[in-house]
């Protein structure tokens, strides 16, 4: 999947405790760091325009189909880890709601089998968006908590690094890649 | 208050025997008889889900459908134009939307004070007066802003149920280990028991899930549902009949001597609606069609009256 970044923006990492970035809470279990953030607070909002190669539509003259993917990250009130919700629209801004489209268009080949084998219909489910209530795709967080614990256990981790660890584990499954340069910093 | 395990089992059994009376008609625009269709009357278990009802509904209404091609999984139900979320148990939907809760609060000459919830014998008399919950069945214009699509094999329904079971288990024990350790037979039996409304098949699996050896109860799986009238938010882009679902980490005890009650939990989660931990002043918690007294021990309530997924799904209704 090639990502043509026409526009890309982030909202700031919002926290209730403005001193949390400097005081650096210690990461002891997977929920502790994020206790500073309220359950439905939006952590990141990313909008990317992605040019995707679609192999399943041979009738089109060009194999490139322009889709929009919108990612939103929320803190799960139960699992206490970030959860990525995402929605897709085609070139005419019509929502793509078929889960097969997600696997065909968004999930990189390397992750497909891994993600599909989890649970009843795979690691990607549809659930009510935490704010709007609209059915939205999300990556099920049940295994994220344990994976993160293994990666960062015993170390002192700030919120920012925690988010990048999480992005590394989860984001790649749905084409969400960020670099430290992408992070907005308060002036 | 620790209830004996036999008492608990019989309480849970009662919850499973609970049902809601539905009166379902086909949307008039989709009906060949140009207007009001026949009514499908059924008592549906409170712990059941809409997708489990769809095949029966399709069989009944099929001959009246203008669109012969419609599949049973294209069916969706609405109450007064509000699409009903199929991943919510029917008991929860009834508590939220049927208006039965308002009836329970009226002074109707049964001796209850106006604005005070009715219990006991008066409550039973009132229940006998309650009419069926009238719903509309549709096969066209799937409301995708409110409902995810279903499939022929019921995979999406099972996925939603499984996710809920996992979440409840994670909350209870602080990790996914217990639910991951459940055998394939047990997982299948859990869902099958809901499909068939068979408590005797549910009970043994639920014991392994809710009371694994050596595990402490960390949090009580609870979700609180606020209909749009109760919630102060009015955000744009929210779906019709929008609900706010509130949940947080709720411990079984506040301290060594203070158990968590329904009142203490609601006061902590929604202080503006539940300013007092002991008396309802603005709103009432509803569970399985009954108003829950605020001094109810939350852990006991969860054990006796949880839904099949292990959650307490509590509806909040405003006091009249």
TrEMBL record, chain A:
It comes from the Eukaryota. GO terms for biological process: autophagosome assembly; autophagy of mitochondrion; protein modification by small protein conjugation; protein transport. Pfam families: Autophagy_act_C. GO terms for cellular component: cytosol. Keywords: Autophagy, Protein transport, Transferase, Transport, Ubl conjugation pathway. InterPro entries: Atg3/Atg10. One of its GO terms (molecular function) is Atg12 conjugating enzyme activity. PANTHER family: UBIQUITIN-LIKE-CONJUGATING ENZYME ATG10. Belongs to the ATG10 family. This is Ubiquitin-like-conjugating enzyme ATG10.
TrEMBL record, chain B:
This is Autophagy protein 5. Residues 15-138 form the Autophagy protein ATG5 UblA domain. Belongs to the ATG5 family. Residues 155-211 form the Autophagy protein ATG5 alpha-helical bundle region domain. Pfam families: ATG5_HBR, ATG5_UblA, ATG5_UblB. One of its GO terms (biological process) is piecemeal microautophagy of the nucleus. The keyword Membrane applies. Conjugated with ATG12. Its main location: membrane. Keywords: Autophagy, Isopeptide bond, Membrane, Transport, Ubl conjugation. Residues 219-316 form the Autophagy protein ATG5 UblB domain. InterPro entries: Atg5, ATG5_HBR, Atg5_HR, ATG5_UblA, Atg5_UblA_dom_sf, ATG5_UblB. Involved in cytoplasm to vacuole transport (Cvt) and autophagic vesicle formation. It is a peripheral membrane protein. It is found in: Preautophagosomal structure membrane. GO terms for cellular component: Atg12-Atg5-Atg16 complex; autophagosome; mitochondria-associated endoplasmic reticulum membrane contact site; phagophore; phagophore assembly site membrane. GO terms for molecular function: Atg8-family ligase activity. It comes from the Eukaryota. The keyword Ubl conjugation applies.
């Amino acid at each position: 999947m090639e990502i043509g970044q026409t526009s890309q923006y982030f909202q700031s990492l919002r926290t209730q405790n403005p001193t949390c970035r400097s005081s650096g809470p210690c990461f002891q279990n997977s929920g502790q760091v994020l206790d500073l953030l309220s359950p439905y607070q939006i952590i990141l909002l990313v909008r990317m325009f992605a040019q995707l190669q679609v192999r399943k539509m041979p009738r089109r003259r060009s194999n490139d189909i322009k889709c929009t993917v919108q990612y939103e990250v929320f803190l799960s009130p139960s699992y206490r880890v970030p959860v990525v919700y995402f929605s897709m629209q085609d070139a005419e801004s019509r929502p793509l709601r078929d889960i097969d489209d997600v696997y065909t268009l968004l999930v990189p080949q390397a992750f497909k089998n891994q993600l599909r084998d989890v649970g009843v219909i795979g690691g990607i489910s549809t659930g009510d968006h935490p704010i709007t209530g609209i059915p939205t795709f999300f990556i099920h967080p049940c295994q994220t908590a344990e994976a993160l614990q293994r990666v960062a256990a015993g170390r002192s981790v700030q919120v920012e690094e925690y988010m990048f660890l999480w992005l590394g584990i989860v984001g790649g499954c749905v084409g969400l890649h960020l670099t430290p340069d992408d992070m907005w910093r308060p002036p | 208050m620790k209830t004996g395990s036999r008492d608990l089992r019989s309480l849970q059994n009662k919850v499973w025997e609970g049902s809601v009376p539905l009166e379902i008609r086909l949307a008039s625009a989709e009906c060949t008889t140009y207007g009001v269709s026949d009514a499908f009357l059924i008592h549906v278990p409170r712990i059941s889900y809409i997708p489990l009802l769809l095949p029966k509904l399709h069989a009944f209404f099929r001959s009246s459908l203008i669109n012969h091609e419609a599949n049973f999984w294209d069916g969706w139900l609405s109450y007064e134009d509000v699409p009903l979320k199929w991943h919510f148990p029917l008991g929860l939907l009834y508590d939220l939307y049927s208006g039965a809760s308002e009836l329970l609060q009226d002074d109707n000459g049964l001796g209850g004070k106006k604005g005070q919830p009715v219990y006991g014998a008066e409550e039973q008399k009132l229940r006998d007066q309650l009419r069926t919950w009238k719903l509309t069945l549709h096969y066209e214009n799937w409301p995708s802003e409110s409902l995810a699509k279903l499939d022929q094999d019921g995979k999406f329904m099972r996925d939603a149920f499984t996710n809920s079971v996992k979440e409840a288990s994670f909350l209870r024990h602080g990790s996914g280990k217990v639910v991951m350790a459940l055998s394939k037979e047990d997982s299948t039996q859990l869902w099958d028991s809901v499909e068939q409304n068979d408590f005797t098949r549910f009970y043994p699996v639920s014991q392994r899930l809710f009371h694994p050896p050596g595990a402490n109860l960390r949090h009580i799986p609870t979700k609180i549902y606020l209909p749009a009238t109760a919630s102060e938010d009015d955000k744009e882009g929210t779906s019709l009949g929008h609900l706010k679902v509130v949940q947080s980490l709720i411990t079984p005890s506040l301290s060594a001597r203070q158990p968590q009650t329904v009142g203490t939990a609601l006061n902590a989660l929604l202080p503006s609606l539940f300013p007092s931990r002991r008396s309802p002043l603005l709103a009432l918690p509803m569970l399985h069609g009954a108003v829950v007294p605020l001094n109810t021990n939350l852990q006991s309530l969860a054990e006796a009256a949880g839904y099949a997924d292990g959650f307490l799904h509590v509806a909040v209704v405003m006091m009249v």
